[in-house]
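Progress report, Aim 2. The chain analyzed during this reporting quarter is listed below.
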Amino acid sequence: MGDKLMLMIPGPTPVPEKALLDLAKHPIGHRTKEFEAVMAEVTQNLKWLHQTTSDVLMLTVSGTGAMEAGIINFLSPGDRVLVGCNGKFGDRWAEVAIAYGLNVEKVTAEWGKPLEPSDFGAVLEADKDKQIKAVIITHSETSTGVINDLEAINRHVKAHGEALMIVDAVTSMGAANVPIDAWGLDVVASGSQKGFMIPPGLGFVAVSAKAWEAYKTAKLPRFYLDLGKYRKAAAKNSTPFTPPVNLIMALRTTLAMMQAEGLENIFARHQRLMNATRAGVKALGLPLFAPDNAASPAITAVAPVGVEAEQIRGILKKRFDIALAGGQDHLKGKIFRIGHLGFVSDRDILAALSALEVAMVELGSELATPGAGVAAAAQILTQG
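Predicted structure tokens for the chain:
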């Protein structure tokens, strides 16, 4: 049956019908009083979601663009930065920093394992001359389903005193607790096609007062991604360049939906869906790629044995029109990833696990207990 696609990937994620209807409307002018009112509402609600009273700026970019802006606005050529690398996106931020002439030192962990906070602590404590200007971390590493201990790493950054804490929260914002002001995070980037529940096209960068001080002396080149321009325009409920008007209208709708649900309920829902997914996968006899104590509430990575990851994905797409994500780089063909981020419900998890079991049987797996995956997930879901 056509037109029944079910997205179970880490982005783009499903979009609520109310937001889709916003996208279908005629756009309004972005230099009008009507749009200024929308911008004022959206900006205020973005601050609520980010748990900050500081600036949260919107850019017409992907999550990568938001992170690039978060790096280049506050640093200068030759600055020493620490980059946490335990997956594709941590590696990407190191590549971005190198491309802009920064002095990059990587703190690494094996893909599928979390970064060790004490590794950052050791390097930062040894920096007696305070040469390290920033620490760049991926909170939820989308490529592996690992969530890094941002709070613990940030404590080491705060003890250092000089370095900025720059965070990729692309798949954690709106899924996990990221209390920007409470933790004193300096730069936090995210993207619209994840927990925000709208299509790709908007990037968000939250900026602290400390980061704005660094902006004054930063010398890396910037123009379209110059956050100073966005801050000045946002003060007038406007944008420095032409924005995706209908995406912002849809964002207004989804932010209102999130406020109605409440932050704690949003975080609890994502945790419940993660737990149910992991329980169901384990019950089907499939190994999980990330450990339980570092599992991301946004995405679960599975490393099948005896059946091929791409064959599983192919059957789910062809037979059930359910899209799962594949592995990236050296993990391509070795893992598949189940997204449970954004506009995802209990029903979606049960449907995906049922289809996964059918795929395994079709590929010749002998299940000890038919229906075990759904039963294990249901037990988690019925606990609330």
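The first strand starts at residue 6 and ends at 8. The chain has two domains: 17-259, 263-381. These observations will guide the mutagenesis work planned for the next reporting period.
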